[in-house]
Amino acid sequence: MSTKKIPHRLYLTEEQMPKQWYNLRADMKEQPDPIINPATGKPAAVEDLYPVFCEELAKQEMDDTTRYIDIPEEVQEMYKIYRPSPLCRAYNLEKALGTPAKIYYKFEGNNTSGSHKLNSAIAQAYYAKQQGITNLTTETGAGQWGTALSEACSYFGINLDIFMVKVSYNQKPFRKAIMETFGGKVIASPSDTTNAGRAILAEDPDNSGSLGCAISEAVEKAVTTENCKYVLGSVLNQVLLHQSIIGLEAKQAMEQLGEYPDVVIGCAGGGSNLGGLIAPFIQDKLTGKANPVIRAIEPASCPSFTRGKYAYDFCDTGKITPMAKMYTLGCTFKPSASHAGGLRYHGMSPILSKLYHDGYMEAEAVEQTKVFEAATMFAKLETILPAPESAHAIRGAIDEALRCKETGEEKTILFGLTGTGYFDMTAYMAFNEGKMADYIPTDEDLAPGFAALPKIPGIQE
Amino acid sequence: MSTKKIPHRLYLTEEQMPKQWYNLRADMKEQPDPIINPATGKPAAVEDLYPVFCEELAKQEMDDTTRYIDIPEEVQEMYKIYRPSPLCRAYNLEKALGTPAKIYYKFEGNNTSGSHKLNSAIAQAYYAKQQGITNLTTETGAGQWGTALSEACSYFGINLDIFMVKVSYNQKPFRKAIMETFGGKVIASPSDTTNAGRAILAEDPDNSGSLGCAISEAVEKAVTTENCKYVLGSVLNQVLLHQSIIGLEAKQAMEQLGEYPDVVIGCAGGGSNLGGLIAPFIQDKLTGKANPVIRAIEPASCPSFTRGKYAYDFCDTGKITPMAKMYTLGCTFKPSASHAGGLRYHGMSPILSKLYHDGYMEAEAVEQTKVFEAATMFAKLETILPAPESAHAIRGAIDEALRCKETGEEKTILFGLTGTGYFDMTAYMAFNEGKMADYIPTDEDLAPGFAALPKIPGIQE
């Protein structure tokens, strides 16, 4: 380990920035199970994806052999406007906790989208532009992905329709406003603009929406609109590929400091940030170079890793997408309305699901009041108000650091701070006023066939 | 000039960060006129300030001889959590404008307060803590200063009462929420908690507030509360001192790139950012080392430089503070309710007023729809959604770059991007929907004795 003083924030130089993404699948001994066309029951071919996805992105989706994929020049140029993101040492947090652990975080919130989502949004908009696509559709939950994609589409001159989960749409008028500032068109989902939306509203006119439902609408809109494709900000293999820049930069910066993490912690919804952050560390595990603990932190109110089934399921509520083998709560699951922020997807990235299933990573579910306690503590000490999603990872890092305090272990912890909470003040207000509730799905809340899932250790047992 | 590729963002290393603030007054050939105690008509002594200000800050306020003042270790440590801020090259903006000019900006928004205000907030809270002060009061307009000071007080364990201009308080519930998250207590001003507030409400129960009024309330609260002092985020000499870190870092980063600005542009409300940004460049002018153009951009709806009188005036509406010689619209002036964001103070930093009066800098007033046009253009190109205040400087930089396009001059422009606009979405929504109005004060709007002020060139003439 280096003896020099470790700075509070380390930025790589522009020259040091990664010029290739890392494709984790190339190092996996066993591949995730293929996505399946539900009509045929057979694995989908890359061509099967072209009606929905941009071709280059569909190829990236299916590519499990190319270890490093060049980041196109124009994408690199855009990355340079807001990257590299800093690797930060949480000195104040360490001191306040009285832990012997060293806590690092990779901060992805220093851009107007407010999160890491811009890393993939730029790539996806770029490939769409290259293909001559003029229209994109997508969905957004908390709004970070929608904001990021609005920014990217604005830059590349692409029209964008965003289906925003209704509960977020209503709670976050300013999220909508920022997407509109960048030219995105925002539609509350479920909406009456698609068959999928109308079907859900017919059954339940007050349906407050879910990511799964918004995906159905966005996919339907894409395939029924001329020169239009669908893009997604999480879950997909291509997204994890683009997000690998987080982990690559983090690892490189730690190496520069003579550091290597004992524990890598990320929040998990669909897996975009987690998959990107942990990619090069999983590589070390897969290749036998190192063996850090990798830990996903997810909401107890949407606990796909810790309570889901590892099974083939639809990626959307309307069952119009292919099926993926993943940890899932069932495609009709939606988290309680009391659940704040993102991390509300019923399933989980197939890559991460496979790694978790094969024992390469752990997962832990936490309740949101505990998450906001961690968020508020962190904000006061480290001067960054975290997004509720990111605060799950903070909670995980604090818990790990407190365990180190008990055992005296001087572990090196790295966590992903994916974004900022400026558009989540309604949730912070609820927390400040003692009005925030915790909720754990009951058997009744779960999709048919998903009842009697395992209990969450430490919370339900 | 260096031939190497200039990066999009340059961060100094932690070791390169300034360890001293620069006190511009030490190099001024003629000093700003002293502040005057209105009761005696005589210049105030440093002791006269102690009932209101922390002692060390009062000393800094009066110190016009010490050129460099050490930044205390603990303040340096806090700076390192969010600094150095990047010097950015606006390549995309240059390209979109088709200008031969090079556009640089110093971005101060990468911290949760969302602006440069944290630079002085930390210093002021630190000195209060050192003196054993347990309570502080302040005012805030747009909310950036209140947020910054809440963060700083939370860190140093000081209670804070924030008088927030009522129109902002009502428009920005989330600004209030973030201050409360950091433990600040927020009161809409004018309030019924002070004599000053009650007097204003008695005359006009619907008074929507002004910075001048909020200052009266905060000062009154400070002098009537035990172990309580008043702090201010702009206008004062001490604030410009602390903010000099912006200019010092910017100049150092430009030197590292082999660059020097031909034009330095900053937005101006009370002068905190502008005074900090331009300090080392004004030094070059004062000492004959260089002669860059220095330009303040202010709102046409609150045009103290371009339409104000250079005269002694109260710093607050309630006339309980000392009087300062400054460009002022009269201490009872308040901008139209249609004016969005900050930059709403009736006066201007006495240091900047003197420099302007003596011809060391220029000033320009711009209308807010033009400002939001610039803001939106910048956001789309540079992926940062600017605060309305900061967007005044963007407007100035764009206008300068467009002049360069006409003349073919390859000027190097540096502007200050003070903060982000995440809490200003109401204003962006008004702009997006075509509902934003411009307003220029009429003679009737001006304070008694301030009618028939000069017209704004290019707007009123």
UniProtKB/TrEMBL annotation, chains A, B:
One Pfam family matching this protein: PALP
4Fe-4S in keyword set: no
Protein name: tryptophan synthase
Lineage: Bacteria, Bacillati, Bacillota, Clostridia, Eubacteriales
Gene3D superfamilies attached to this UniProt entry: 3.40.50.1100
Subunit annotation: Tetramer of two alpha and two beta chains.
Family per similarity comment: Belongs to the TrpB family.
Recorded GO CC terms: cytoplasm
Domain of life: Bacteria
Reaction catalysed by this enzyme: (1S,2R)-1-C-(indol-3-yl)glycerol 3-phosphate + L-serine = D-glyceraldehyde 3-phosphate + L-tryptophan + H2O
Limits of the Tryptophan synthase beta chain-like PALP domain: 82-419
Function: The beta subunit is responsible for the synthesis of L-tryptophan from indole and L-serine.
InterPro entries: Trp_synth_b-like (IPR006316), Trp_synth_beta/beta-like (IPR023026), TrpB-like_PALP (IPR001926), TrpB-like_PALP_sf (IPR036052)
Pathway(s) annotated for this protein in UniProt: Amino-acid biosynthesis; L-tryptophan biosynthesis; L-tryptophan from chorismate: step 5/5
Necessary cofactors: pyridoxal 5'-phosphate
A molecular function (GO) term: tryptophan synthase activity
